[in-house]
Amino acid sequence: MKIDLFDFDLPTDRIALHPASPRDAARMLVLDGAGTHDRGVRDLPASLRPGDCLVFNDTRVIPAQLDGRRGEARIGATLHKREGPRRWRAFVKGAKRLREGDAIDFGHDVSATATTRGEDGSWALDFAGDEPVELLLARAGRMPLPPYIAGKRGIEARDAEDYQTMFAADPGAVAAPTAALHFTPALMAALAAAGIGHETLTLHVGAGTFLPVKAEDTADHRMHAEWGRIDAATAARLNAVRDRGGRVIAVGTTSLRLLESATPEGGPIAAFEGDTAIFITPGYRFRAIDGLMTNFHLPRSTLFMLVSALMGRERMKDAYAYAVGNHYRFYSYGDASLLLP
């Protein structure tokens, strides 16, 4: 499909620069068989059914942006995928200044060697020393806010908390699973009281989620691989939900992509551990999920293609035009949508 089929007008002032406060005070646009409805995130218990199950991503964002020098040249690195105990794949600003074997000094006694360059222009960085890389990043790294936010304001101290979900437990993501940013302990208690369960899985979100689609056709776009895991017990409980007539509702496109990767055609959800580069576009037949809660995505993005696959491209374009006209807030710190095909 042509990429321009997924374009739409989005005024830049609709991109939220800070989250709603409190988190569950965000608005929520509900699309279901009865139409399109203006709701709030706090209405989620009444918008679902007893027996439904929400699936959250428990990945934790690491301070994955680094500023360094190779001699006099400035080098910026955004880590996006772990490849070994001390090796990370990174997108590099100033990559033309790098050669294999170059050392980059990130300050704070943190340095890395550029080893191999990938076909996508990224570099493998091997961090020096014996300290865990997580400790090095805590000293030298910054929170990797999306460029659509970081380009408009500086990174603030509050982002260290704002850009983590309440489920964040397993460090390794360089972008937050932002649909889950709306959840609070009070909302989770209300969901439980309404008979709505929840499960967690892990998908370490990579910086590739921010990359623009440069191809003219979806067939020519390559997704970056991300590592994820669903254990057998979680898969069994999710299958039991569907067997009882409940619905599996993914919270965020990251949860959805991993659930679909773990489910063979015609089969139940299975245990999964490894890389996924699944690219979901219209025509895809969903196997694992019955609905999706997600934020509002950018034009021409793989995420808007995914929601178009779930609900239909024309319906999503109409819904997004409605959201723009009614001042819904877009992207990572923005409002939510609940999509129930």
Automatic annotation (TrEMBL):
Task: Give the main EC class.
Answer: transferase
Q: In which pathway does it act?
A: tRNA modification; tRNA-queuosine biosynthesis
Question: In the Enzyme Commission scheme, what number(s) does this protein have?
Answer: 2.4.99.17
UniProt cross-references to Gene3D superfamilies, sorted A to Z: QueA-like
* Compartments, as annotated in UniProt: Cytoplasm
Q: Does the keyword Ion transport apply?
A: no
**Organism domain of life:** Bacteria
Which chemical reaction does it catalyze?
7-aminomethyl-7-carbaguanosine(34) in tRNA + S-adenosyl-L-methionine = epoxyqueuosine(34) in tRNA + adenine + L-methionine + 2 H(+)
- Family the entry assigns: Belongs to the QueA family.
Q: Which PANTHER family match?
A: S-ADENOSYLMETHIONINE:TRNA RIBOSYLTRANSFERASE-ISOMERASE
- Subunit note: Monomer.
* Official protein name in the record: S-adenosylmethionine:tRNA ribosyltransferase-isomerase
- Organism for this UniProt entry: Sphingomonas mollis
